[in-house]
Design goal:
The structure is a single chain. The chain is α/β, with parallel strands linked by helices. Helices cover about 40% and strands about 15% of the residues. It has helices spanning about 10-20, 25-35, 40-50, 55-65, 95-110, 140-155, 180-190, 205-215, 230-235, 260-270; strands spanning about 70-75, 85-90, 115-120, 130-135, 155-160, 170, 175, 195-200, 240-245. It has a seven-stranded mixed beta sheet, with helices on both faces. Strands 6-7 form a two-stranded antiparallel sheet. Strand 6 and strand 7 (about 175) form a beta hairpin. It is globular, with a radius of gyration of 19 Å. The relative contact order is 0.16.
Length: about 280
């Protein structure tokens, strides 16, 4: 493969999104964005592992670059590979939890996974084989909906974070925002059992304070999300526990409660796994 020089270019992204307005952004602001987004480190990763794709790329990030340790609890609850499942988890880190789950679940199921992610992450070419892009801040395009349906219809395992956005801290407790009901609807539609997963982890106090300040002043722009790459690079050399729950039959969701109510119930079940 040809050598890759730069794939993540903050200045180019600003120009593509803001057009002529990008030139009015002060240079120190652009340089600050380059630093907190870790443009140089991300490009270093892309160059270092440019020959690795999908699950192999995730494995290199977990084991070689970030050097983290995963402690899998109740791995016996993982269902056999011949079935089709939806793996749902809490979202404490907003990025690195997805990397770890993609690696762990991908290795278990012979790389046959699809993972719904923010469409901005497709800028990293190593991830395109396993990622399905979605817009986490608005409605989905027809093309995005088509790709999501194709993923559910395939024999790949699906990994998703029903909260969409990463966990926030409220009254001292770090917990997901409300879970969207679509994963319940898709489980029934495509006859996929759901495997609940609890992921141990947290971001920095700075991240949660910024989120609470933004909310207090009713600032709509999701400022704390700009710092997720910075949070990701703080996870180096850490250990994470991953708790696997028993699969829940899709047929259970076809009676009694509405999809939204089942989503609330599944979220509760995931957090109960923390004590198991």
């Amino acid at each position: 493969m040809d050598t890759i020089n730069t794939l993540i270019d903050v200045k180019q992204v600003l120009r593509s999104k803001l057009k002529d307005k990008a030139d009015k952004i002060p240079g120190f602001v652009v340089n600050y964005l380059i630093r907190i987004i870790h443009q140089d480190e991300i490009n270093e990763i892309i160059r270092k592992y440019q020959d690795l794709q999908g699950v192999e790329f995730m494995e290199a990030l977990v084991k070689d670059y970030f050097k983290v340790r995963l402690h899998i609890k109740h791995e016996e609850n993982l269902p056999p590979g011949e079935g089709r499942y939806i793996f749902v988890a809490n979202h404490p880190l907003g990025g690195f939890d997805g990397i770890c789950l993609s690696y762990f679940i991908g290795k278990h199921y012979n790389s046959k996974i699809k993972y719904f992610v923010n469409d901005l992450l497709l800028a990293i070419p190593n991830l395109r084989s396993i990622f399905i892009p979605i817009n986490k801040h608005g409605s989905q395009s027809k093309e995005a909906v088509r790709k999501m349906d194709e993923a559910y219809e395939s024999d790949n395992q699906i990994i998703t974070f029903p909260a969409g956005l990463c966990s926030r801290r409220h009254k001292g407790v770090i917990r997901d925002l409300a879970w969207k009901k679509s994963f319940i609807q898709k489980a029934v539609e495509h006859k996929r059992d759901i495997v609940p997963i609890y992921f141990e982890g947290r971001n920095s106090n700075f991240f949660y304070r910024l989120a609470n300040i933004r909310t207090f002043f009713n600032i709509k722009m999701n400022l704390e999300m700009l710092y997720l790459p910075d949070e990701l690079f703080k996870q180096k050399n850490k250990s994470f526990g991953i708790h696997i729950g028993k699969p829940v039959s899709w047929q259970m969701f076809d009676s009694g409660k509405k999809a939204g109510e089942w989503a609330v119930r599944m979220k509760e079940e995931v957090y109960k796994l923390a004590d198991k």
